Amino acid sequence: MRYDIAIIGAGPAGLSAALNAKIRNKSVIIFGEDSKALVKSKSIKNYLGFTDISGCELNDKFKESLTSYDVEYSKERIQTVYAMGDYFALSLKDNTMVEASSVIVATGIDLKKDLKNEEEFFAKGVNYCATCDAALYKGKEVVVIGYNEESVEEANFTAEIVGKVSYVNMYKKGVKLNSGIDVIEGEIPLGFIGEDRASKLEFKSGKKLSADGFFIIKDSSKPQRLIPSVKLDGNHIWVDNKMATNIRGLYAAGDITGEPYQIMKAVGQGQTASLNAVKYLSKLKKKD
């Protein structure tokens, strides 16, 4: 099945985009989970129509708006978005592909800085999907730097394939890992050391950990890693006033497009992106 619109991100921008697409009878799939930044907000006083509401309550209100529509949800992480001409192929971590005629990126923004030499050693010992690439390290030593629940699953999966796994715990105390996985607590990773490829992970304490491969598992990928050849404006995706990127059929909305990082802005941009994606689909249909 090829969806009309695939939306990457289930925060305010993504849900707004989905609602406006479904009102116009488009098939939609949303990838992602609730916005952590929104859900953790205890009090929101500047959202029009609500004098004071918690982020969790507002998030529930957003999702209620979609309950009467047939929207497909997936918690699968999109690894890469490939522009294929008149459609897009979205790669999942099990190497399966989901097709969509248009894509709206609403992933939010990852404000964490890269580790030192992370970009330089990307695909040269530094990877972002253990499920995708663990087989490359069969019988070897691997380090998983984990920032979320997914990283725990990835570490357990990787341990069944590689020779040895060390898990640098940046997530929470009491993570449940399979026996045989070395857990490193209380260390802050600074960056990677190596010549042609990453061979060591350096910590703030001065400790260094050698391995054949390193996996960084966090909540979101940098835009240029998610979508090859997308035009950037600093750390954000460049868009015009229609929320269109430099890639035909690809739109972006919300924090990923730049400041201000505001909920109402995200909702409005999600609507704008969706309306213009629908127009784009109409042009595609006429072309056929």
From TrEMBL:
Pfam families: Pyr_redox_2 (PF07992). GO terms for molecular function: oxidoreductase activity. This is Pyridine nucleotide-disulfide oxidoreductase. The keyword Ubl conjugation does not apply. Keywords: Flavoprotein, Oxidoreductase. Residues 3-270 form the FAD/NAD(P)-binding domain. Gene3D superfamilies: FAD/NAD(P)-binding domain. The lineage of its organism: Bacteria, Bacillati, Bacillota, Tissierellia, Tissierellales. It comes from Anaerococcus prevotii ACS-065-V-Col13. PANTHER family: THIOREDOXIN REDUCTASE 1-RELATED-RELATED.
